[in-house]
Each structure stands twice: as structure tokens, then as C-alpha cells.
Design goal:
Length: 477
Amino acid sequence: MDKGLLAYLLIPLLSAVIIPFAARNRPRLADILANVTLLAGLVNIAWMVLRPSVVADGFADIPGDMLFPLLLVGAIYLVALCVTFFSAWFMEEGQPNRAAYYSLILASVSAMTGVVTTTDFFTLYVFIEVLAVTSFALITTDDSRGGIEGALKYFFLTFPASALIIAGISILLIVLGDLQFETLRIFMASDVPPGPAVFAAALIMLGFLIKAGVVPFHAWTPDAYQGAYAPVSAHLAGIVTKISGVYAIVKLGTLLRFFDGRASALSEMVMFLGLLSIAVGALAALRQKDFKRMLAFSSISQVGYIVLAAGLGTPLAVIGAVFHLFNHATFKTVLFLNSASVEKSAGTTDMEKLGGLEHSMPWTSWTSVIALLSTAGVPPLSGFWSKLLIILALWEAGLRGYAGLALLFSIVTLAYFMVMQRKIFFGRKSQAAESAPEVSAPLLAPAVLMSAVIVALGLLFPYFYTYVKMVAERIIL
């Protein structure tokens, strides 16, 4: 565990313990404590990374092994803050499990911070399982039938993943003698035949592919996202599944040195599943009639881009994977929070019953446009740069077919999102739109903030590309 980042794990955990007692007679105090905790952490991270002296020195003051974790901890806090701030105004007055809800959000933040800052496989597994338990509880927040069904599918379909991970860790311990990440990195760089270590890593990788909702292990994802309490869907899709599955895939790919062919069969399998997820997720999204379910399949497709790049494992591919992971957190948070706003205002997420909401919900409509264009990789938004890096990495590696298909399905992404935008926001006003006012400013604020981040990252990416490249190089070398 990186001691420099330990406070980002312990403080939200402490707040999660305090909230049920402090807010027992004053429910709104839970909102305040959760938001203040996350805002303070986010401001601290921003100051640590972006203060003028650090930027002027080219981030040389930040240790190499802290760059990637800091970036991801920042994403975790940013998404969680948007979700808790949104939830404070979305929840009905007098909701009985308000304090427990915020405690679970903060506990999940603590677990995710543990996942991205740990330096050994066993601790990684422990935090992943804590995150799984909190996610299971969060999906059932509103006690609806859909939420309970989604939670049960999440539990039973990801349970085999935990068994595979612990089996792989056990074999790895026998082969290497300890479970430190650095031990595996050194072993893979040596001349020792890597067979048993790669087999163990393959079991661990398979477990994380299931937890990430990668095709063909994606059956739980649409039901969990659709059935979950609306803000929880944003939390799950925006950051939880990215940290509980995708982050570990990227990390394991760098430790196994995919870029120099030490585990070529496993690398090719991961790349194939990544491309399969891109295709299946995009084509399935075209057929959906529910807003949240379409976003769920879109999320599967976008995760595929990150997994595809992680399977390639070259420095350029890792840059693209890391940046797309961060971008995914921004644009999916906007879209899922907007789906919650539509559900609150119009009373449904059935796209067949919606239409013409642009006139009554202009802010929700145009933040959705920004997020969907970024998801589809339209310049100059942030999603364009991360997808461009992934496609260029594939092209440079001689994988022209993969690069072409990745570009093709990015166009398909734009197609189904334009269909979604037309059905929900553009076109003739539906009956639901007649009585669907724009949501309040506090509910709009997180989507507007994230949209601003999307635009800013896109416009400024050429200026901080050197920093992102430094992150990737320090991860691999």
C-alpha cells in the first residue's frame, strides 16, 4: 500500500462509520458529511498534482509509482462527488436508508482507493471483494424488484470470478514465493520460462474480465445498471466496474509485459475479447428501447476499447487505455445522471414514450450531446484523443484489422447515440415531455461540471500529453 495515498482510503472510511451515528436524528447531515469528505479529498488531489510548482517542474516532484494511482484516485473522488451531490437532491425527503446509502458510497470509495494503491495481489483481492459487497448493497438501495434482481445477478454471475482470482493468486504464490506486483514484473523480465506464472495470471485475468463485464461475461451488466437506484447506476458504470475489473486488467497486462510478447497467447485472448465487447456492446445498444439499458450496452462497448488496448500493452496503447478509462468515467457519469434526471422529470426511461424533451430540458439535452459525442470519439472532445491513441497503437503494431474495426464501431457508437438523442430529446413532443420540466440546478450541476471537464480535457490534451505519456512509461518500465 502506498502510504502517501493512505489518507484517501482512511478518511472516507472514517466518514462512512461516523455518518450513521451523526445523522441519526438529522438525516440531511449525511448529505453534508459525504459531500464535504469527497470535495476535500478531490481538492487535495488537484492541489497535489496541478499546483503551479509541480506543473512547472514537469511533475518531477511526484514519484513515478504515484502518478497512475493519483490519476485514478482523482477519477474515483470526482465521480463519487458528482453522485453524492446529485443524490442529495434526487432522494425523497424522509427516505429511511439515507445514512446507510452514503456510508456505502464512501466505503466503496475507500475500497476503490485501496484497489488502485495496493502493491500486492492478495490486498488487491481483499479490496475487490469489499467493493463487490458494497456494490451489491448499493444496487438494492430503493428496494425495487428490478434492483433486487440486478443485485442477485451481479452477485451470482461475479461469484465465479472471485473463485478464479483466488485460485490464480494461490498458484502465483507457489510459483513466485510472494504476491508483490514487482516480483511478477521482475520474473517476467527474466529468462525463466514463464509458463506456470502465466497460467496463474490467466486465471486472475479471467476473473477480472468477468468483473469488468467483458463479453461473453456481460450478462449481469445491463440488468444491474438498469435495475439499480438511478444515481447508483452512474456510480457503477462511471467508476466501480472500471476499478473492480478494468484497472486490474490494465495493471496485469503491464506486469506480464504484453508489449514484448512474454505472454503472447494471453495477450491475444484479451485483445480478442476486447474487440468482441466493442462489437457486441455497440450492436446490442442499437436495439435497445430503454435509455439506461442502452447506456449499459454502450458501457460494455467502451470497456472493450480499454481492454483491447490493455491486451496490446505497448506504451502508446497503455496511454490510450488509461486516458479512455478516465474519459469513460466522465462521459458515462454525465449520461447516467441525465438518465436519472429524465426518469425523475418524465417518469420513465422508455425511449418510445419520450421525445421533444430538448425544449423543456435543454441543459440535460445538451450535456448529453457533449457526452455522447465524446463517447463516439468526435473531435475535439476528450474521447476523441483516447480512441485515436488506441487506434494508432493498433496501427503501429501492425494490427490493421483491429484498428479498422475499432474505428468502424466508433461510427456505430455515434449512430446509436444519435438515435437515442433523437428519440428522447429531439423530434416531436411526446405526452411525457409536455409535463416534464427541467430538473433543478443542483441536479444539473454534476452533469455540467463533467461536461466542462470533457471539453477542457479535449481542448487541452495536446498540452498535457507529455504528462500522460510519462504516466504510461512509468507504469511499464
